[in-house]
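Re-running Transposase to confirm reproducibility after the cluster update. Everything else is unchanged from the original entry.
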Amino acid sequence: MTREEIGLGWVTPHAFRRTAATLLDDVLGHARPSMTQDHYLGRGTVNPAAAAALDSAFRQGEKVDDR
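Result of re-run:
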């Protein structure tokens, strides 16, 4: 089943990322978004296992094993 078939064609990895970042910013409650960016974003830091799980889930629509 595809995103389009279930009426979620607008849900993209970027939309998911943006939503997660917005929720995190709201929870942290910083007055300026730059505070969140400056202190919590690890540019260039990648967790290979997380990247592989997300890649697999988005490419194949499989359930991710969340051990």
